[in-house]
Amino acid sequence: MDESNIGAVIALHRKRLAMTQEQLAERVGVSPPAVSKWETSASCPDVALLAPIARALGTDVNALLSFTVTLSQAELLAAVKEVCQLGEEDGAAAMERIRALTRRYPTDAALRFQLASLAMGMPPLHGWPEAEKAAAWDFAEEGLAYVRQHGEEGLRPTATFLLAGLLLNREKLDAAEKLLESLPVLPLAPQTLYAALYQKRGQPEKAWHLARIQLMTGGQTVLQALAMLAASDAPDAGRALEAYGAVAEALGYPPCLLNIQLASWDMEHCDEEAALEKLRSVAEELAGEAVGPGALWGYAAPSEGYAKALRRMLGNSLRMDARFRSLERDPRFQEILKRLAPEA
Question: Which of 40, 175, 182, 248 has the largest CB neighbor count within 10 A?
């Protein structure tokens, strides 16, 4: 046991939970002065108390003892690549590998974050069966919750955001709302001033790069809001859809993603012919037969690997989307599905 460090670890976890020494002492069954001595390294907790202390602090004994085994950056990237390749071929094998990595490196928060992200994204991307998707999302929930509690400070907000989105998808609305309420809302964003700073320092390339990032992130927020309005029963839903198309085109949003959204709107308004025409353009674009330019920065055709993954994801999404159910017997729709995922 590292007696010089365990007290600092106990104090760190206790303060993170806004817990007093008296509260920790009560939960563990010792006196408040005993906790004080641990945290000042005047004494060390008995081995039998390590598990109760860890439970009270919402951590594990390994973390208390500062015993962590982590992957190097190269090892982490290799593990992610391996899991991605498995996920394309065999969802069960991918999850088995994910769990094996988690058992081997249980306190590596960066690894847990990457594995949880993969467990979230692979099921819809590769069209896993519902049972496999549910098991993967169970793992993702657990992994992101671990990162929220034990990951580095800079990683926790992202883990919280992703976990809230996952809970929304799983209809766990109260839990998602609680997480969203825990995220800080910054009324002032420094990025705008940084762009001005770079411009005044004679660094227009840096200023332009930052401005592009702001446009992409802010534009995505605007598009999500417009898509929500367009999908509603509001009287101006049609205007929201038109605005969505204009903003998406101006930002150089990939036309295929825009046309999927527009096709969904057509189906909701009983215009199957218009929906099929847009889906046909999606298949053509992802096959490299058509590319639409962006107004602010050129939209290049996606790489073959990205296009293949996107084709598979969209094809699986169309097969499962109830809005396109009435097209299942239409040979034109079946041809579109084949072009999106010819290997399916």
Answer: 248
All residues at 6 or more sequence positions from 299 whose CB lies less than 8 Å from its CB, including other chains: 252, 253, 254, 255, 291, 292, 293
Task: Supply the pLDDT for residue 65.
Answer: 79
122 part of a folded domain: yes
**Which CATH number goes with the domain that contains 57?**
1.10.260.40
- Residues 208, 170 share a domain: no
Based on the domain organization, do 211 and 285 belong to the same domain?
A: yes
Interatomic CA distance for residues 205 and 219, integer angstroms: 21
Tell me how far the alpha carbon of residue 278 is from its chain's centroid. 28
Tell me the average confidence (pLDDT) per consecutive run of 10 residues in the chain, 344 residues long.
Answer: 68 85 95 92 89 88 74 92 91 94 86 96 86 94 91 90 94 94 78 85 89 80 83 80 83 75 84 92 75 49 65 82 90 90 60
Domain that holds residue 205: 191-304
- On the 0-12 / 13-18 / 19+ scale of CB atoms within 10 A, 193 is exposed
Cα–Cα distance for residue pair 12/25, rounded to 1 Å: 15
271 and 197 inside one domain: yes
Separation between Cα atoms, residue 258 and residue 250, nearest integer Å: 12
pTM of the model: 0.65
199 and 293 housed in the same domain: yes
Same domain, 218 and 250: yes
Q: Which residues contact 234 (CB under 8 A, 6 or more apart)?
A: 240
In a domain, 317, yes or no: no
